[in-house]
């Protein structure tokens, strides 16, 4: 019957098609490698994988495929694994040329045929033979609570054998959960025993040719289900060799116990013969349970590290992804845990519109991602270059799920600084002051540039010269005196500003001296304004200046009146001069005259006179506390006692240079001597002795001579006066005797006095 139908239908099929679906055989690949690389999509751990009972693929019934164009009406899955009841190349692009088939080895499963697949077929009432069976079986451990995957069923049986006994069939059969010993756990969640999850959406009907088709039965076929046409596409453009295929379908979602072992068997076969192959396309990465992941920075926020962000001027839109579309509006939480960064101190959380947000993200129905904005902020305790870490994790799905973790580095920005440079003949020189031209030098074109450090991203430069603004480069030309304003702004909006003034300068200076009138031999200190350089000269030439002629305050010792001139160079290179005269005054020679230098207490007045040469002023010190500034006069000393006074005259010239002269005044008492002209020896009274009476105590020697000139008495320290005896023997006779007195006067001078004395002997 099938052959008769075939001969009639071949005339209706196109001979050529566009090449779109590409298939590669998996022959020689380990089955677990095939599944993990091309089928597993996250949240599941696959093990114990087998194809047709073998751990390594040794059949061309299975392979991988790519389909660049999945839009309607093309085959709807872009890439993945394909199982075919014939050679896997039968599922590639090309024309359907007829009754292609294979003699594939069936799965080694009990009676040689997939038992659950057999049961599924028989449940439809079909008793035809099962041929070219392909079985992909494996164990898996889910980390989430719900498992599903996407697929498309295709067949060469379409449309010719819809509702016929040639109802090629497939099924996806789940069993579990199991413990590590392989025992079925009936007390944990829902238990599955080869439950077919390849069913038509919102039904319990398996997907077969006779349940999903174009809605038209072929020939004299027995009526079947013709109402699921929304899930069917006819291959009118020959996107692949299969004549028809389902839309992309998702398996029934089944609830599983996380971290337990489950078994999954994917089986397909020809029914009734080996001809007209069928295929199942398994969508890549679609086998999954709940698993969350985080977006990774794609740009380079900080140099050399895409995970480093600069505080104060950057943000990051972090997205959490779920590996399935949200069933309805779902809420999931990002965990900010660990690290050194603090919310509100180092970062804030907002939505993409800047509104405050928490860590709970809402997934709208059908969405696979939700986004949160992290704003990295500075705080007053940040030190440039300090790095803090922010650890972000997805919420925990189960104990055996791996949480996605993202570590971001938050760097405190470097201080944004700048330097200005001026182009000089020998290169660029740092500019720290305004530019000033001397009045005798015309302005010339200047070239300035700025160099910055610590900036973030590109820097925008704005130069303002009068009414002109230039933002093109970090350099500028200036052709005339003016003020130039500069603002440099980095990518964070931080600014550095500077101002350079171009002006004309007139240098001025002054000069001063600590003394403008000096004496010969004196030193003066010259002084001028602060400058960069100094040159001092003198007229007439002063050798003492030459030793320090290039300092701000030179010392000089002129011997004659001299004019000193200084030339200064200011910080702008401009020069100015000034001068000062130092007058050298002739030296003063002090001299005095005192009249008299010696006098007595009865006449203590002394005349003084200044005889100084070049005298301008003076001061007298007379030795007794009296002073005077007069050129001449009379000083009166105390007339009470003998004294010697040191007189000092300090004379000054017009430069106030001094000279001193000294003198002495001696004041003596009045010197008187009383000598009696007669005495009476042996009288027993005061008149019994002969000798002088002096006004003051002084040394003397008394000698007495007879008329014949014989010395009859000479005083000794023990006997100062004459007692009238001749050389201490007998008393001299009455008469007149001659005396000689040697003595020292008030000045200590030796003096001599002679005279006569009348001796009247007392004989009573």
Tell me what the structure shows.
With 764 residues, this protein is mainly beta. 4% of the residues lie in helices and 42% in strands. The longest helix is centred in the N-terminal third of the chain and has 8 residues, at 2-9. The termini are far apart. The relative contact order is 0.07.
Layout of helices and strands:
Layout: H1 2-9, E1 22-25, H2 31-38, E2 40-42, E3 44-51, E4 62-66, E5 79-84, H3 115-122, E6 130-142, E7 146-147, E8 150-155, E9 169-178, E10 192-196, E11 232-234, E12 244-246, E13 249-250, E14 254-255, E15 261-271, E16 278-283, E17 287-288, E18 292-294, E19 308-310, E20 314-322, E21 330-339, E22 347-350, E23 360-363, E24 369-376, E25 387-394, E26 405-411, E27 417-424, E28 427-431, E29 435-438, E30 446-453, E31 460-465, E32 468-470, E33 475-478, E34 483-489, E35 495-505, E36 511-513, E37 517-519, E38 524-528, E39 533-539, H4 543-546, E40 555-556, E41 562-569, E42 575-585, E43 592-595, E44 598-600, E45 605-610, E46 617-621, E47 627-628, E48 632-636, E49 643-652, E50 658-668, E51 673-674, E52 678-679, E53 693-694, E54 700-705, E55 711-714, E56 735-744, E57 750-759
Parallel strand pairs: 2-17, 19-26, 29-35, 37-42, 44-50, 52-57
Antiparallel strand pairs: 1-4, 3-6, 4-5, 5-16, 6-15, 7-14, 8-12, 8-13, 8-16, 9-10, 9-15, 11-12, 18-20, 20-24, 21-23, 21-25, 22-24, 25-26, 27-28, 27-30, 30-33, 31-32, 31-34, 34-35, 36-38, 38-40, 39-41, 41-42, 43-45, 45-48, 46-47, 46-49, 49-50, 51-53, 54-55, 54-56, 56-57
């Amino acid at each position: 019957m099938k052959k008769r139908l075939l001969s009639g239908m071949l005339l209706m099929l196109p001979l050529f098609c566009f090449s779109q679906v590409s298939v590669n055989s998996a022959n020689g690949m380990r089955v677990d490698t095939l599944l993990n690389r091309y089928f597993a999509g996250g949240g599941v751990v696959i093990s114990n994988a087998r194809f047709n009972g073998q751990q390594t693929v040794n059949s061309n019934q299975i392979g991988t495929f790519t389909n660049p164009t999945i839009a309607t009406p093309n085959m709807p899955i872009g890439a993945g694994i394909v199982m075919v009841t014939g050679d896997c190349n039968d599922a590639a692009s090309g024309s359907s040329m007829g009754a292609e088939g294979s003699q594939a080895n069936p799965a080694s499963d009990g009676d040689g045929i997939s038992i659950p697949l057999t049961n599924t077929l028989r449940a439809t009432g079909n008793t035809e033979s099962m041929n070219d069976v392909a079985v992909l079986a494996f164990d898996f451990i889910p980390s989430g609570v719900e498992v599903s995957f996407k697929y498309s069923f295709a067949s060469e049986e379409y449309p010719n054998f819809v509702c016929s006994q040639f109802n090629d069939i497939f099924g996806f059969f789940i069993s579990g959960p199991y413990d590590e010993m392989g025992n079925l756990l009936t007390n944990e969640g829902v238990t599955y025993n080869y439950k077919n999850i390849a069913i038509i959406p919102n039904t319990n009907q398996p997907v077969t040719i006779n349940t999903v088709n174009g809605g038209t039965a072929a020939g004299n076929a027995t009526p079947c289900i013709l109402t699921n046409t929304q899930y069917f596409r006819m291959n009118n453009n020959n996107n692949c060799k299969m004549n028809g295929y389902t839309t992309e379908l998702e398996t029934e979602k089944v609830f599983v116990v996380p971290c337990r072992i489950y078994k999954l068997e994917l089986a397909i076969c020809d029914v009734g013969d080996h001809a007209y192959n069928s295929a199942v396309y398994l969508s890549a990465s679609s086998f999954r349970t709940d698993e969350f992941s985080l977006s990774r920075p794609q740009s380079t926020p900080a140099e050399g590290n895409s995970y480093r962000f600069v505080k104060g001027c950057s943000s990051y839109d972090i997205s959490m992804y779920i590996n399935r579309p949200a069933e309805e509006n779902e809420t999931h939480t990002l965990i900010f845990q660990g690290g050194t960064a603090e919310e509100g101190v180092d970062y804030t959380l907002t939505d993409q519109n800047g509104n405050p947000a928490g860590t709970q993200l809402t997934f709208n129905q059908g969405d696979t991602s939700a986004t949160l904005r992290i704003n990295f902020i500075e705080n007053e305790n940040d030190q440039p270059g300090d790095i803090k870490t922010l650890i972000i994790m997805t919420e925990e799905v189960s104990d055996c799920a791996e949480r996605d973790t993202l570590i971001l580095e938050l760097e405190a920005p470097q201080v944004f600084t700048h330097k200005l440079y001026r182009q000089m003949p020998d290169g660029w020189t740092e500019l720290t002051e305004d530019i000033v031209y001397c009045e005798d030098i015309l302005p010339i074109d200047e070239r300035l540039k700025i160099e910055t450090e610590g900036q973030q991203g590109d820097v925008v430069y704005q130069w303002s010269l009068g009414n002109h603004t230039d933002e093109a480069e970090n350099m500028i030309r200036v052709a005339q005196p003016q003020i130039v304003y500069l603002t440099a702004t980095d990518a964070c909006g931080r600014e550095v500003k500077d101002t350079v003034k171009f002006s004309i300068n007139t240098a001025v200076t002054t000069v001063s001296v600590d003394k403008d009138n000096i004496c010969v031999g004196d030193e003066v200190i010259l002084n001028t304004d602060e400058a960069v350089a100094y040159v001092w000269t003198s007229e007439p030439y002063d050798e003492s200046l030459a030793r320090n002629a290039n300092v701000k305050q030179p010392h000089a010792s002129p011997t004659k009146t001299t004019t000193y001139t200084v030339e200064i160079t200011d910080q702008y290179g401009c020069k100015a001069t000034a001068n000062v005269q130092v007058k050298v005054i002739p030296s003063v020679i002090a001299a005095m005259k005192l009249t008299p230098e010696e006098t007595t207490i009865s006449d203590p007045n002394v005349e003084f006179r200044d005889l100084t040469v070049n005298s301008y002023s003076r001061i007298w010190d007379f030795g007794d506390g009296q002073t005077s500034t007069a050129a001449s006069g009379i000083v009166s000393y105390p007339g009470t006692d003998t004294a010697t006074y040191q007189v000092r005259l300090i004379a000054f010239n017009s430069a106030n240079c001094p000279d001193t002269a000294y003198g002495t005044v001696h004041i003596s008492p009045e010197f008187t001597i009383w000598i009696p002209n007669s005495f009476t020896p042996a009288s027993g009274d005061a008149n019994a002795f002969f000798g002088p009476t002096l006004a003051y105590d002084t040394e003397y020697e008394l000698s007495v001579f007879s008329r014949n000139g014989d010395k009859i008495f000479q005083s000794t320290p023990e006997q100062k006066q004459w007692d009238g005896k001749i050389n201490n023997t007998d008393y001299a006779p009455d008469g007149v005797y001659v005396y000689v007195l040697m003595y020292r006067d008030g000045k200590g001078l030796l003096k001599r006095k002679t005279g006569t004395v009348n001796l009247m002997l007392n004989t009573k």
